[in-house]
Design goal:
By secondary structure, the chain is an alpha/beta fold. The protein contains 6 helices and 9 strands; from the N terminus they run βββαβαβαβαββαβα. It is 29% helix and 23% strand.
Length: 225
């Protein structure tokens, strides 16, 4: 199965909470370089597809990664802050007819390692006869509440140990693995009707949404290196 998966790395030029987030310098290089390098170190990723509307990203990616990246120009109809990622993926798949398996991630996951990417790909091919897709999650065993103070997963009148509470999983947007067939069969969605939940560790699952996340990710990346 080596080299049978193509990575989808969508990036828009505009960012609301962290200006120019995707190309903001991260240890001396644009942020998206970190995840791109990890993807290209994977035994299972053949190429990285960058769907973008940003001219700098297009030229910089080709300059730094050459033929290992495929650039897809993002058309006007799928630009903006409120476009579903599934719509972007659907457009990518229409341009990538030679590929059947996809690993979708984001530039905002700079701590994701090639080892975890490989482990996830191996797990996907191990279970894909039973499950139609795979996505990354964080595991929680703690007390959750609704906004109005009502408990979600526990009884305040019977405080059992947190380690005995039901496990809850959070979709962490770290990555998604799916086939062309499952995407189309499930209403053009990256998560199918029977997905496998793949746990990632707290450090690698960090997703940069705001400036604080950026600072934390930079420090952790420095420590890991």
């Amino acid at each position: 199965m080596n080299g049978e998966i193509i990575a989808l790395l969508p990036m828009k030029g505009h960012s609301e909470r962290v200006p120019n987030k995707n190309i903001k310098l991260f240890h001396g290089r644009p942020l998206y370089h970190a995840i791109t390098a990890s993807l290209l170190k994977s035994r299972y990723i053949e190429k990285v597809v960058i769907n973008t509307d940003d001219e700098f990203i297009k030229s910089n990616a080709k300059e730094n990664f050459g033929e290992k990246v495929i650039i897809i120009d993002r058309p006007e109809q799928i630009r903006g802050d409120f476009v579903s990622m599934n719509d972007v993926i659907n457009y990518d798949l229409s341009k990538l007819s030679d590929y059947n398996f996809f690993f979708q991630t984001h530039s905002t996951n700079p701590l994701l390692t090639a080892k975890t990417i490989d482990n996830a790909c191996e797990k996907y091919f191990e279970i894909h006869d039973e499950f139609d897709s795979l996505f990354a999650v964080n595991r929680f065993q703690t007390r959750f509440y609704w906004k109005d103070g009502r408990p979600i997963n526990h009884d305040p009148n019977n405080l059992i140990r947190t380690q005995d509470l039901p496990i809850i999983y959070e979709e962490n947007s770290n990555f998604y693995i799916f086939s062309r067939q499952s995407f189309m069969n499930n209403g053009k969605k990256r998560i199918g009707k029977k997905p496998f939940l793949f746990e990632t560790n707290k450090v690698e699952s960090i997703d940069i949404d705001d400036q604080d996340d950026f600072i934390i990710a930079k420090q952790l990346y420095k420590l890991k290196k």
